[in-house]
Amino acid sequence: MFVRAYLRASDKSQDATRAREQIETFAKEHGLRIAATYVENESGTKLDRPELFRLLADASEGDILLCEQVDRLSRLTAPDWERLKSELAARRVRVVALDLPTSWMMATAKVDDFTLRMFEAVNGMMLDVLAAVARKDYEDRRRRQAQGQMKAKAEGRYTGRKENLARNSGIASMLRAGSSWSQIQAATGCSRATVAKIAKRLGTSIGVSGVQN
């Protein structure tokens, strides 16, 4: 049985390793040794997460996926959560989350088959509940944000997201130097739309034809 820690943050502006110490402390207190750690900055609303699926590809039957909270694993829609659960079940990977005490029993090999099956059933139900709560929390926050923006627009107070002037200045410099859009995206972590916006400001068509990309 190997313990594989999974650390996730939603985007590159957040520290995906924030909970590393907390997870390592939990593992030590429960007599576990973390064999590998998988870190990524991807939204929990996306099923397509490279590091999560690398973890699953590396895992063997009985391995533990250890995470800080269930919402680090899933803010998925119900259909996508079912797909992820199917992947976990197919590989017989046990999910242990620090915010889900019912999962802690899964972190020990010293348990008989009946007890293990009982805790798997209870833990599966609680995982479903917390995954649903995490998705609802995400949708509620998005809805409140949209409502706040609509109100601010109606009152003439909405200015949109502040521009990252330092980053955009760097993108402009890279465009002037002849870097391709793909190179700029890889270097800055920005979207292609952002590069296009800066290129338009400069009046340049670098990369538009795709020749340099």
Fraction of residues in helix: 40-55%
Radius of gyration: 22 Å
Shape: elongated
What fraction of residues sit in β-strands? 5-15%
Organism: Microvirga aerilata
GO molecular function: DNA binding; DNA strand exchange activity
Pfam families: Resolvase (PF00239)
Keywords: DNA integration, DNA recombination, DNA-binding
What is this entry, summarized?
One of its GO terms (molecular function) is DNA binding. The chain is 51% helix and 11% strand.
Q: Can you describe what's shown?
A:
It comes from Microvirga aerilata. There is one protein chain. This protein has helices spanning 20-29, 50-58, 70-73, 78-90, 113-154, 165-176, 181-188, 192-202, and strands spanning 3-9, 34-41, 64-67, 94-97. The longest helix is centred in the middle third of the chain and has 42 residues, at 113-154. It is elongated, with a radius of gyration of 22 Å. The chain has a four-stranded parallel beta sheet, with helices on both faces. Helix 6 (165-176) packs across helix 8. It is of the alpha/beta class and 213 residues long.
